[in-house]
Design a protein that fits this description.
Blueprint (H helix, E strand, L loop, with lengths): L1 E4 L7 H11 L4 E6 L2 H13 L3 E7 L2 E7 L5 H16 L4 E5 L9 H17 L6 E4 L14 H9 L3 E5 H6 L10 E3 L1 H10 L2 E4 L1
Parallel strand pairs: 1-2, 5-6, 5-9, 6-7, 7-8
Antiparallel strand pairs: 2-4, 3-4
């Protein structure tokens, strides 16, 4: 049985830590968390993947038990074949990020959520084909951004990352670009037009 200590880990890290063990082939996992939100998120993740799930509270944390049962080697092979088939026909998709904050309301909360979004994006595969940064979103690719390591990881995997040159000039930060390349609106429109799915944030 694999033990995952996710105490003192901010969302979505407990789920991502659990997913890594599942992706590595673990079929029996105990995840230790220290709050109800993390507990519910890990349980939801386990149920989605058809694990038997349960949780118990102890003095040092909440212990979540995940166990995969009843999957034959034939079923496993069939599932892997299905995944391969899906990957072969996957669409060209990406994100257009037009702000350095996620959602409306508190700017401070919005920055935390955007950081969490980009971290999650760097941990979940398959990666998108492209990330386009516009308006204040270009601040995420420049010096001072807390998401640079996550974006570098995504770029290293082959994801196209571009920032609007006009936007960088407007904020006077073109010389502070740390990840990806400078682009123009023609290239942005072309990339979106050629994609199967471009999600605007």
């Amino acid at each position: 049985m694999r033990i995952v200590d996710a105490r003192k880990k901010a969302c979505p890290q407990p789920v991502i830590m659990t997913k890594k063990e599942v992706d590595a082939g673990e079929i029996e996992i105990t995840v230790i968390v220290d709050n109800e939100t993390a507990k519910e998120n890990v349980l939801k993740f386990g149920n989605k993947l058809h694990f038997n799930t349960g949780a118990e509270e102890k003095a040092d944390g909440i212990y979540i038990h995940l166990k995969k049962t009843g999957a034959s080697s034939c079923e496993t092979a069939t599932n892997e074949a299905a995944k391969d088939s899906i990957n072969k026909i996957k669409q060209k998709k990406g994100f257009v990020i037009s702000t350095d904050k996620l959602g409306k309301g508190s700017d401070d909360l919005g920055k935390i959520l955007m950081k969490s979004f980009l971290y999650s994006l760097s941990e979940i595969k398959p990666y998108p084909n492209f990330l386009i940064f516009l308006n204040s979103g270009v601040k995420l690719t420049t010096t001072g951004s807390e998401s640079l390591d996550d974006l570098r990881k995504i770029e290293k995997a082959g994801v196209k990352i571009v920032s609007c040159g006009t936007c960088l000039d407007f904020f006077e930060i073109k010389d502070k670009l740390e990840v990806g390349k400078v682009t123009n609106m023609y290239d942005i429109v072309e990339t979106i037009a050629e994609s199967d799915n471009a999600v605007m944030i």
